[in-house]
Amino acid sequence: MNFERIIVNALEAGVGVETVVFALAAIGLNVHFGYTGLLNFGQSAFLAMAAYGVGTTVATFDLPLWLGVVFGLTASVVLALLLGIPTLRLRADYLAIVTIAAAEIVRLVFRSVTFEGTFGGSDGRQSFAGDFYAINPYPVGDYGVGSFGFNERALWVLTVGWALVALSCLIVFLLMRSPWGRVVKAIREDEDAVRSLGKNVYSYKLQSLVIGGVLGCLGGFILALARSSIQPDIFGTETTFFAYTVLILGGAARVASPVVGAMIFWVVLSLTDNILGEAVGAGYIPSSVLTASQVGQIRFMLVGLALMLLMIFRPQGIFGDRREIALDAR
Amino acid sequence: MPADPAPKPTDQLTDRPGSEPADRPSREPAEPRGEAGSRRGRRDAAAAALADVPHEPGAPKPDPILVADSIVRQFGGLTAVDVGHLEIQRGAITALIGPNGAGKTTFFNLLTGFDQPDKGTWSFAGKSLSGVAAHRVARLGMVRTFQLTKALSKLTVIENMRLGATGQKGENVFRALFAGIWQTQEDEITERADELLARFKLDTKREDFAGSLSGGQRKLLEMARALMVGPEMVMLDEPMAGVNPALTQSLLGHVKDLREDGMTVLFVEHDMDMVRDISDWVLVMAQGKVIAEGPPDAVMGDQRVIDAYLGSHHDAALTEEDEQKILAEAEEALEKERAEKEEGRS
User: Fold this and answer.
1) For the domain that residue A183 is a member of, what is the CATH number?
2) What CA–CA distances, in Å, run from A17 to A128, A136, A226, A292?
3) How many CB atoms lie within 10 A of CB A28?
4) More exposed terminus of chain A, fewer Cβ within 10 Å: N or C?
5) Do A193 and B152 touch (CB under 8 A)?
6) CATH numeric code, B8-151+213-345
7) Does the residue A328 lie in any domain?
8) For residue A191, which residues of chain B lie inside 8 Å, CB to CB?
9) How many domains are contained in chain A?
10) Residues in chain B where the model's pLDDT stays below 50
11) Which of B143, B162, B179 lies nearest to residue A196, judging by beta carbons?
12) Cβ contacts (< 8 Å) between A199 and chain B: which residues?
């Protein structure tokens, strides 16, 4: 077994593009679910807004990339308002139903034959990230230590990505220590109590939905730019549920938990994949038990098992406060 | 406020329930208590103001803060609330009593904007509240608490208190990002919150999660938090439910203090001792209607009230003593029933 490759792959996954994308998606969800208590099951739609914002603007309409970013952000805000205005006056469950349905509608519209000319059908859009790599300050080459490293394109994406993660965390930190954050957290605990104290609960929930959606959509930009290619099926419901997993892994309502959660999630996925793959390849696991093509499925089962154990032995997540969980039991 | 603070101890002594039977105006309840008046401050002022008010449902008050007209709320075929005309005297403590299912809490919800009536108008301090959202009602100065206490469990006690303050600059999402804009105001709010916590004896719990408080402490916190809004009128929905007797006395004191601070109080309560002890005026609801109103002792002897609680076919030939006994028993039964319900809920 090649342990060096296993370790290096795991480390690269820990800071890689997927980690950045899911950290950003989970930071948005943290604002929704962790702080405000909004059950948004359509986070993938916000990522899709951003990705298709740049994708269609550049690849279909041949407009500059920055305009695509503006469109992507605008589309996310509009989506949040569309989801929130009819549902946030109702009970919490309605938002969950509407968001999960809306995310599927968004995905199906993007892959529909009718709009193939605009969104590219199931093939999506490609080669729209030229402007982004044109301003890459890193000269051509590999950067890293030993076999751990990235080429100049990946490094550029990761630099921008981690800068966005840092900025998002800063924004969440500043908001949540403020009186605004206090109102939002109070809404999570009991809306009626907050209403009785003269706060416009509806407006705060809408603000939270917009902010979380916009922070989450940043992940969509990074995903699109890193791959220079987008397909509608990336934005299925599993993207949302991975983001939830990442959030709960880290512990909801903590500023850094989405980041650490995303790192752990992708490191563990990489480790199980590589270790199993190597073990099967080296013959430690006989092919009658597990073949190389089955490793991909097995790793998700193992991750699921790890999550179950985490919820049993550490329900508050990595950063959560056990005292808070104990309050729920009262 | 009492003009002369010196005789306060006596005042407190006579205020205690049952300590001096003569204190209970059992014969002519609405009569202003002359010589004691100067020492009793707002309590007597309220009693004096209400002295000439007829003991009839919908009686006009000299200085009403809340006026409601023909408020109807129906749930399907059930008319939960059907109140003709109602006025609440400013600066007085008014109790709203009635058997279970009388529509007291529904009426509360309607007045505070948590529910909208099918028809009717009502105004608070001269401003119409028809169709006004609950948070705007609170901002106008009418703040309520809840029957099932709504402490914000995962916020600390002091954060619960700070939340109550109105007009906070930092509650705007853009200004929230810059602590410099709201920090000074936050410090002032914290100072005010700490004063209230000290008054409600919750200062030792300042940094604890509100969810870790006992039931009675949560009631105290909820009342203190409501005061952070700076209300003109406080609406308490069963402030004594689930509170142990030791805390009851202190809660009673706090409710009386609200009146001394110039606030108007309307509260729903089942505990008749409390009603008798602190209220200046009592409204009785049964089957959605206000069936009687008047000073506590007059109301509790009212035939309509006894009928509402006990049914109209009980033995009519009773002495007043027997009536009191039966009423007390009924209260006890109600109390027990409520306690059981409370237990069932928790």
Assistant:
1) 1.10.3470
2) 18, 16, 7, 25
3) 30
4) C
5) yes
6) 3.40.50.300
7) no
8) none
9) 1
10) 1-39
11) B143
12) 135, 163, 171
